[in-house]
Specification:
Elements: H1 14-60, H2 64-67, H3 82-90, H4 93-124, H5 130-139, H6 145-159, H7 166-169, H8 177-188, H9 192-200, H10 205-216, H11 218-234, H12 237-242, H13 251-261, H14 266-286, H15 288-300
Helix pairs in contact: 1-14, 3-14, 4-8, 4-11, 4-13, 8-15, 11-15, 13-14
Length: about 300
């Protein structure tokens, strides 16, 4: 009897398995290549968009002679930190920053209270014409600000509010259409069982709004606060219309005045722009996670 080693004969499924394995490897490679190209394009786009930001930082740290060198010298030969000190010396820039912080703080509170109350009304209360009023409010988003600018100016002049913060801050306490829509979408996602349980315990509609809806809407409220901060910190149009006293100028209007005074000193102008941009960067990076969470949650509700 001869010795022989038995080997299992090839089956018909082995070529199919090989083809599936090769196909899986090919799909994985194509997916990795596509992902790499996507990230490469995003990096290139980010670098292109960041060029003005890098130029602003570089110019703010240059001497006046290096500013006019061509081609552009991206890295200063010597960092001139005195440019940032001169901004506070030549103009009351600290006052401008304080004014903007005050306006933004009060306006954020107004937007949170006014818009959240209106959003709660549209999301939970029952009254005739609620949907019609909501559509009318949203339709005001299509009305350009230039249409209401002159009537608003005449109204605030008649009230004696010119050269004060009242024309800027008082409207913030009324419902803003975009913020109201954002918060309404979030409120619609809160379970009705919570509201029913609160009403059984004797809680009023205002109590439900204050004790249940506002604590649960923290991500959406933070999103509204960030949007409000960015808007009022950068607002130039309405302070330019209603304010005349320099000690009441916000930072955007202060930079416009500073630019007219230092039109040839680009180093100081870029230093002032960097100081004005810094608070927004700090707020965004500190609240980035909550901001994205609020946008995602409010975008999928309702």
């Amino acid at each position: 009897m001869s010795n022989w080693t038995a080997s299992s004969p090839p089956t018909a499924t082995e070529p199919i398995r090989t083809q599936r394995t090769n196909r899986g490897l090919g799909m994985r490679q194509r997916r990795l290549i596509g992902l790499g190209l996507t990230y490469a394009l995003l990096l290139v786009g980010t670098a292109v968009l960041m060029i003005p930001f890098f130029w602003m930082i570089s110019t703010s740290l240059k001497s006046l002679d290096e500013v006019y060198i061509y081609p552009i010298q991206w890295i200063p030969s010597q960092l001139v930190w005195a440019n940032y000190v001169d901004v506070f010396v030549k103009v009351p820039f600290a006052r401008y920053l304080y004014n903007s912080a005050f306006i933004a703080f009060v306006a954020i509170i107004g937007n949170l209270l006014g818009s959240s109350l209106a959003a709660f009304s549209f999301a939970r209360l029952r009254y005739p014409g609620k949907l019609f009023l909501f559509v009318v409010m949203l339709s005001t988003l299509m009305v350009p600000a230039w249409v209401t600018m002159i009537p608003h100016f005449m109204l605030f002049k008649w009230l004696g509010w010119l050269d004060s913060y009242l024309p800027i801050l008082v409207p913030a306490f009324f419902a803003q259409p975009f913020f109201t829509f954002l918060l309404r979408q979030f409120f619609l996602g809160i379970p009705l069982d919570l509201e029913d349980a609160a009403r059984i315990d004797g809680c009023s509609s205002l109590g439900i709004y204050w004790r249940i809806f506002l604590p649960l809407a923290r991500p959406a409220l933070i999103t509204v606060a960030i949007f409000s901060f960015f808007y009022y910190w950068n607002d130039l149009l309405y302070p330019l219309i209603y304010l005349q006293s320099q000690d009441k100028f916000p930072v955007a209007m202060g930079i416009a005045t500073f630019r007219s005074e230092q039109y040839a000193n680009f180093a100081l102008m870029m230093a002032a722009a960097t100081l004005a941009l810094l608070p927004m960067l700090i707020v965004f990076f500190l609240a980035q996670r909550l901001f994205i969470q609020g946008v995602v949650i409010t975008g999928v509700k309702g």
